[in-house]
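Hi everyone,

Forwarding the result from last night's run.
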Amino acid sequence: MTIQSKSDFWQQHISAWKDSGLSQAAYCQQHDLKLSTFTYWRNKQNKGRRKLMPVSIPAPDASVELALPGGIHMQLPASALEQTLPLVWRLLREQA
């Protein structure tokens, strides 16, 4: 089995597990999968994903600081987020 076919195999099981409502252990037992291998592939597939954090902004004139990968920090008024965040998001996705 190639690396890609292994990845596809485990991605299908991970998606099915999420839809199943079962615990990881119960899903693995039901499908005769080794829990440690399932966990390895689930972590491997989640590793490169960026996580978003919810934020609340007290006022439009408040100052907001964005901490980006690579040690980049941006400070801007909250009112500029609507225009700035889509651009930043696009640039981050292009780098990935």
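The two ends are 27 Å apart (CA to CA).

Cheers,
N.
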